[in-house]
């Protein structure tokens, strides 16, 4: 939640948020569960910051250096290294502090032999960067030796020249070990891709194979399945951009191709409307149909500034379930775990509602509990909705998409009378 507050309320960049969070965790004197007062993780750095000699950029460099010290280094040596680096940083720029830190690391582990499995496991990871203007995504990774060996073995086979070439209809697919040598040789002669492009196509082919062969599982959890929302106009014209449950923007033509290899949940909304059909449910947990409808409307967490995608959200009740809130679609909204728990009738919490009027009718509004502030909606996941000229607004109900959905989602069992003024889809008999 602290990170979400820094991004959502102070509108800090991800880098600035990480800097401040890391600094707070490293420099603060925290209290243990036992009530014991704990010293800062970086006491010398905390003292230099308190004296006004170090900036956040200095702290970020020191945190990175200390984090890179192998776990095999004794604690007292690590503490001395932090003290010396913090001391010299008082007279250096952040860039010069980084250079000094590299010198310390080279002294502590000159041959890199002290790094062990604990360090490798602690620093392993794969990071998927946000999409750029071309909808392309950069990947950065730190792979363990075992993970790299497995990846290289797969790429040798799947990324061989001529294999899994999306621009060649006669290109063999899968592993080169199962392909006729003459066919592979002919495909290799037609190949014009670089090694990097072959690696990309091999990974995509592997992921396609996994999805087509049950790699996402066969359970009922929608978070483990491919879920996409698009407009009717875009589907009919095979143009435009769809959105997946994880927040990825996907060209509709690619969506159509993926649908041939997987069975995605597809939620379609009329271009001019994002209002969704009424679905009632007497249980606390939202049904699959309701979750799909929430994805189509909300895209993810509805709290202002939150960027958590739909695949990581919960169905938030308005009012809360324990206060008598029904599990009806016009009383539900997407919310991440942290923001769902932050909704409260007590001061310092949030209150929520489905907006009944205005340009964002049908969407979830948030404001501090007990305040008279205007209701706020989340534009972080749907910035186009906030554009006065180039965005779109909800202007109709009872649209073609609601009829489309009504034919595909079973009618709910009889429930309490629907409040006056609620738009209800009448299911065919």
TrEMBL record:
<dbReference type="InterPro" id="IPR003870">
    <property type="entry name" value="DUF222"/>
</dbReference>
<dbReference type="Pfam" id="PF02720">
    <property type="entry name" value="DUF222"/>
</dbReference>
<dbReference type="InterPro" id="IPR003615">
    <property type="entry name" value="HNH_nuc"/>
</dbReference>
<feature type="domain" description="DUF222">
    <location>
        <begin position="36"/>
        <end position="298"/>
    </location>
</feature>
<protein>
    <recommendedName>
        <fullName>DUF222 domain-containing protein</fullName>
    </recommendedName>
</protein>
<feature type="region of interest" description="Disordered">
    <location>
        <begin position="162"/>
        <end position="197"/>
    </location>
</feature>
